[in-house]
Amino acid sequence: MRRPPYPLKNPRGVRTVRRARTWLPGLLLVAPSIVAIGVFVYGMLGWNFRLAMTDRHSTRQPEEHFVGLENFINIWSEARWHLSVRHAVVFTVVFVLGALLLGWFLAFLMEKGIKGEGTFRTIYLFPMAISFVATGIVWRWLMNSGQDERAVGLNRLFDAIGLPQWAWFRDPEWGMAAMAIPAIWQMSGYVMALFLAGFRGVPEELREAARVDGCTEWGVYRHVVLPMLRPVTLSALIILGHISLKVFDLIVAVSGKQIITDVPAVYMWVAVFDSDDPAKGATIAAYIVLAVAVFVIPYLVWSVRKEKQS
Amino acid sequence: MRRWLATAAMAGLLALSACGGQEPGGTQATGGTAGGKQQVEVFSWWTGPGEADGLKAMVQIFQKQYPNYQFFDAAVAGGSGDKAKALLKTKLDGNQPPDTFQGHAGAELQGYIQDGKLEELNFLYDELKLRDVFPSQLVEQISVDGKIYSVPVNIHRSNVMWFNPNVLKEAGITAPPKTLDEFIAALEKVKGTGKIPLSIGSEWTVTHLLESVLLGSMGTDAYNALFKPGANWASPEVKTALEKFNTIMSYAGDPQDDWQPAAKQVADGQAAFNIMGDWAYGYFHNPPEGGLGKKSKVDFDWAPSPGTEGTYLWLSDSFTLPKGAKNREGAIAWLKVAASKEGQDAFNPKKGSIPARKDADKSLYTDYLADALEDWSGNKLAGSIQHGVAVNQPWLASINEAVGLYLGTKDVAALQQALDAAAKANLQ
Q1: B167 and B266 assigned to the same domain
Q2: What was the ipTM of the complex prediction?
Q3: I need a surface site. Which of A205, B184, B284, B367 has the fewest CB within 10 A?
Q4: A172 interfacial to chain B (CB closer than 8 Å)
């Protein structure tokens, strides 16, 4: 039996120290962000859920009581909440589908090797660098509801070229679909970049192999490229979906806090700052978090599983 | 592929940095000194044409009278102060108040008073003998349990009907309507000419219209009683008023983005009537940088909104003294200027409002403002809903919500029910 190179009194302790040397610096490095996220994200989330389950319907109330899920149930009897939720759903469907389709289509055109591709790519990506507030202020003018001799913005253009005019976001039924247009304009360039990266990630050999086997060009896309874009599509869906469900700045910039374009995030703001009802605001915030979780959690599960596989 | 992902990520970062990083001005200024002078941080939402000029005129007097203080403008843009108020709330909740802030006099300040955020100003009223120079009904309507918490700088009128004389002539209307029934008949006549009978703006302008219709239909005493304990918003009188409101709304044009484009429709001869506060006068009358440069009595004209003659549906901008102000003495100096005849006479002609004081120099107020000054001295007073005199912020939020939902459904019964529920919840 060989002796250890140097005498050891407590071999186990040294092993602990040695092991600590491998993980401790890393832990120390990430510790500040773990603490910050723990307090400011998860701590606040917990605090919000706790507040949502109390009867604190005024900041001036002396005490609060635990009321369970009462606020979560009661809010469904409010006409405004139904309107808000309906608006959020319409906005999300139009925005997510619109941005995905337009982004995909732009990437598809780029991928076909258009001349001056770099310029186009920059042009399409630029709107992303603008904040939703700036976008909203410009589109508020473009989407002015005045018609015929009072038309400005898009209606003026449509009037001149003989297209039907529309009340845009002031349309009582489908106004929120119009509200999604600036969001699509802003985000489709980003989706394009994601898809373009996805397209470029499909090895040329695969396409050639398919072509050699007698596949048409459309078939190559249908059976080879599109299936390989699934992870990109999923990422884009998650990113767009969570932006859409908590949309606030765009709506406020376009129409302020008017009921005709009310969404949960605006309702939450009014509940807290105007109505002075923290419990109701927290309840709405909790519903927004839950709605986003519906998008994000399956994605996390899927990516963890995929990591394990590879 | 990597490169494009990187580009996308960069773009994302850019967008993020564009959103964040905006520090509201003023925080770094509290209690600071500039060139040996102590700063006084004054928080307001006067940034628009007219109002900013008025503020500047008042600041000049302040700097002359109190050379030791440096005025610091912590104004936040946004009509009616809805963005400013959100920021103010966070500042007060965090016990980092500005030295003095603008607020609508009346119920809007109640929340701050109940929270103990404001100092009472009875001492200032006694020292400057302000009870003698402000109308007694005004002092009574801004007092809470005998205590006064703000200094009103100006008075605006909410119940003004603006109209285009040419459009009225074209429709065969000889005199501006004096009652709501005459008003409805006039709207019908205008409709026949193809013009917009009544222009409206965003949703708050409809609440603004509603308060004039309530007052016009119910009368001053019944209207004022709506905001006192025991008020009955489910009454048949309110129902009648709301039905008239519903009829009037059926003549409204497409909603505009805010009150200015709605007022502009009247000035441009596209619409006949618009009910808006008297800040519209400055917009009609001022030269084109801030206004429309229209001629009064020719391009536009005014009358009290139908059924409200003899009543001044008022609102007032006022300044307060928050507890824990870093520069309390400086804030009191500002309040003294704001309360003074000189300060009010410098501010108001520019802002397009009349002074709260009774002893103002009448020669400074011409045209519309001369009318307003005369009415103010003789009329009964009623407090505005939309502009924070009669109802506090939560109550107003409920009323705005009820009106907003009504605009979608046009359901008058539901509107009355919601207004009644809002009153019951806030009058306990």
Answers
A1: yes
A2: 0.84
A3: A205
A4: yes
